[in-house]
Amino acid sequence: MSFADTAPNLVGSDPPPARTPWFSLDKAARRHPFPTIPPKAYEVPVLKVPTITGVPYYVISDPAGVKQVLLDKVANYPKTERERRYFSAMFGDGLLSTDGELWRTHRRTMAPSFSPPSVAAYAPAMAASALAFRGRWDQQPDGAEIEVAEAMTDLTLEIIARTMFSTDGESVSANVRDTMERAMGELNMSLLDILPGIGDIRFRAREKRIAAIFAEMDADIARMIEARLAAPTDGPQDLLSRLIAARDSEGGATLSPKEIRDQVVTIFLAGHETTAATMCWLWYLLSQHPQVAARMHEELDTVLAGRSPTHEDLPNLTYTRMAVDEAMRVYPAAPGISTRVALEADLICGMAIPKGGMVAIAPWILHRHQLLWDNPGRFDPERFAKDAPERPRFAYMPFGGGPKVCIGASLAITETMLILSTLAQRYRLELKPGHEVEIQQRITMRPRGGLPMILHRR
Questions:
Q1: Which of 126, 163, 171 is nearest to 238 (CA)?
Q2: Cβ atoms within 10 A of the Cβ of 383, count?
Q3: At 351, phi and psi to the nearest 5?
Q4: Tens-digit pLDDT string for the chain (458 aa)
Q5: Are 339 and 1 in contact (CB under 8 A)?
Q6: Residue 359: other Cβ atoms inside 10 A
Q7: C-alpha closest to that of 120 among 274, 301, 313
Q8: Which residues, 6 or more positions from 438, have their beta carbon under 8 angstroms from its beta carbon?
């Protein structure tokens, strides 16, 4: 939803062709998420960007300025009303769409479900799903063509359904992919959507369509919640059970069925869509950098010695984690975070921000900024080695930053590491000859038209 309110490149729209800028790694980035943002944004701490509405609009790329917006003065920079409405239409009162005390209460209530012990408890189900999925690839002949974008979506959807709902997940995952795809399609916008009057009429119609799209999935979730509430001690101890049993550490309040539904839908998107996108870009980057893939494979062979990976193995897969971190720098699954509006005038890195001014922070730009990274256009996992030079806290934000940093960051890293180590232990993937990878952005960033790759057994 980044840059949605005032920037010409609207959410869900196809960006116009743009020349490959100096900060791009390869042809895939020539249709990058923010082609209307001048290249100077990658060279200066703060850039004021012209907009079609005339509303002052600023891209913040200095880590101190990012910290000021997301942490030090976060109350002065709430999400814009339009973005809150978009997120609310899909996610209700989930963590992505709420602010203020409601968000703080829900965050406290949900935090134990994403603690390190909880993530470790989910890991066996993740590993088992990845192993079962690898069995499907084992049935393919060497050199088979695989549509990796679809494959990673299927796998991550299976994992989040199994992690969240245990065996009950099959009844939800059957329609959740279609639901999410149709709902994401509703984010496609035109200039009519930002015009006074008609824009609001069009948005109300869009809200009704989104509610209809989610009706079947909502009914499935409601049935599972009702069944768990009726027999709270008989069900599996999965994420759904943890959310039902969760209590606010300060007030003792529990989540209502509607609030549980909203958090479930939010986690479904964050828990499978972003990880699927990350896996797509990982496979692509590894195929383009065989020396990185070779070193990662060597580590997998040494650490795992042919056995399937477990949660306990992950701390020892240091180079594999470095490759994951660098892939998220180069292709962050969520290339921008919510546009913020200044409630009161402020000064950021010497730039005067007027009351009502729009402020944007984009991991895509931060991660490729000339002042923050040495040769930012190079894919180099060594940036994340333990002895690498220290970087500013807010220079790297694949999961956002500040109080609203993604609650499921540890869960997502664990899932990505288990998928990658399970599959790469036995396979390497080669980009289909002649296929040009391009970026498509909605909320997340995916390869446009899929990612056809050739499967090679190691």
A1: 163
A2: 19
A3: -95, 125
A4: 333 333 333 223 333 333 444 455 556 655 667 777 888 999 999 999 988 778 899 999 999 999 999 999 999 999 888 778 777 887 888 888 888 888 888 899 889 889 999 999 999 999 999 999 999 999 999 999 999 999 999 899 889 888 888 765 555 666 777 787 787 777 666 666 666 778 788 888 888 888 888 888 888 888 888 888 887 777 677 888 888 888 888 888 888 888 888 888 888 777 788 999 999 999 999 999 999 999 999 999 999 999 999 999 999 999 999 999 999 999 998 888 878 999 999 999 999 999 999 999 999 999 999 999 998 989 999 999 999 999 999 999 999 988 888 899 999 999 999 999 999 999 999 999 999 998 887 778 889 889 999 999 99
A5: yes
A6: 25
A7: 313
A8: 27, 28, 30, 31, 447, 448, 449
Task: Round to whole Å and give the CA distance between 298 and 303.
Answer: 9
Q: Show the tokens assigned to 147.
A: 């549509």
